[in-house]
Design brief:
Strand content: 35-45%
Largest sheet: 5 strands, mixed, barrel
Radius of gyration: 16 Å
CATH superfamily of the largest domain: F0F1 ATP synthase delta/epsilon subunit, N-terminal
Number of helices: 2
Helix content: 25-40%
Shape: elongated
CATH topology of the largest domain: ATP Synthase, domain 1
Structural class: alpha+beta
CATH architecture of the largest domain: Sandwich
Strand order of the largest sheet: 1-2-4-5-6
Length: 138
C-alpha cells in the first residue's frame, strides 16, 4: 500500500509499506494493505512505518488526521520528527527545561504552554528510546 506522512514542512515519508502503526483517539491501530477505508484523528505518539523493503521508519508525531483509502494511507500532521534525528540527551534536557517552566508558571497560559512542551518532549523521548532499542535488536 502507498503510505504518505505529510507535514507543514513537507513530506516525511512516501513509499510502499506493509504496515503503519499509530495511535488514534480510539487507541492504537495497525493498518495493513486492503484495510477498510476510514478517517480518524491521530494523537501524539510514535508512528511506525514498515516499508515493503528496508527497516521500519519511526516518527514522533504530535497529532493529525489519518485517511485510509482502498490502496493508500495518508497521515497529515503538523510536525513529525524521524527517530534518527532525535538524541535522547537533548530531548531529556528539553524535558527538564519544560518541567522547570511549568513549575515557575505564573498563570494558566504559561502552565498550558509548558505542559504542551512537556508532552512533546515525552513523545520525542519515547521515540528516541524506541530507536535505540530497535538498533540494538539488529
Amino acid at each position: 500500500m502507498k503510505v504518505e506522512l505529510l507535514t507543514l514542512s513537507g513530506t516525511k515519508f512516501s513509499g510502499e509499506a506493509d504496515e503503519l502503526r499509530l495511535t488514534t483517539t480510539n487507541g492504537q491501530i495497525g493498518i495493513l494493505p486492503h484495510h477498510e477505508p476510514f478517517v480518524a484523528q491521530v494523537v501524539a505518539g510514535p508512528v511506525v512505518v514498515r516499508p515493503t523493503t528496508g527497516q521500519p521508519e519511526i516518527f514522533a508525531t504530535y497529532g493529525g488526521i489519518v485517511e485510509v483509502t482502498a490502496d493508500a494511507v495518508r497521515l497529515l500532521a503538523d510536525e513529525a520528527d524521524h527517530a534518527d534525528d532525535l538524541l535522547a540527551d537533548e530531548v531529556e534536557e528539553a524535558l527538564k527545561r519544560a518541567t522547570e517552566m511549568r513549575d515557575k508558571a505564573k498563570d494558566r497560559v504559561e502552565l498550558e504552554q509548558a505542559q504542551s512542551m512537556i508532552d512533546r518532549a515525552n513523545v520525542r523521548l519515547g521515540v528516541a528510546k524506541m530507536r535505540r532499542t530497535h538498533h540494538r535488536e539488529r
